[in-house]
Write a structure and sequence with these properties.
four-stranded mixed sheet; 25% helix; 34% strand; globular
Amino acid sequence: MDNGGSAWLPPLRGKWKFNSDAAAVDLKQGTGAVAVLLLDHIGLLVDGMVCKIRVRSVAQGELLAVRHACLMAVALKLAAADIESECKSVIHLCVPEGVPP
């Protein structure tokens, strides 16, 4: 789910990569947005989505972004897909400890 903070790495040929992120989070208003980009093995944009969300924390926004990426992968029937997030706490919540980065 994470590339360790280094430059973006493309997925292997035949796989897909979702980049997910929460943005414009305004905790006073309880609003924000999530964005999900689906990229192929050469980094070309294949699909994506942006939507407004109601949130109480930035972590909640990041989790919703990952959730939208998962829902997109299921809707597109993509069995071989990586989901990337820059939020380490979200990654720790989503991935068991024994899974390599």
